[in-house]
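Hi,

Apologies if this is the wrong queue. I'm a grad student, and the batch job for Transcriptional regulator, ArsR family from Nocardiopsis dassonvillei produced an output file that my downstream script rejects. I'm not sure whether the problem is my script or the file. Here is the sequence I used:
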Amino acid sequence: MSSDSCELLCLDLPQAEAVRARVPADDDVRLAADRARALADPTRLRIARALAVGDELCVCDLAWVCSASQNLVSHHVRQLRTAGLAASRREGKLVMYRLTDAGHTLLALLLPDPEPAVGEG
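Support response: The file is valid. Your script probably expects a header line. Output copied below for reference.
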């Protein structure tokens, strides 16, 4: 028997039912899971941080900031956009990306801003 499970059935039905009533179904948490998965990559986290700091950037700028190819950055920013964490707009021949409110919120939970050094800000 694994040390990670009970050795006997000890269901506290009233508590288990009360908890079960407040736990959403799989379909109800799919968007949250998709968004978490979208930021579960170091490159996408770096891109998201760059967008949070830079407010709005094109793929060329993101590629330079993240030391990655434009093709790679384009692929990752598309995944962030598909998950609803980033948005884009066309400005002439450029496509500008920014984080959505959901992107800012999730990024802040996963990768909080570092505390400013003493004497800064």
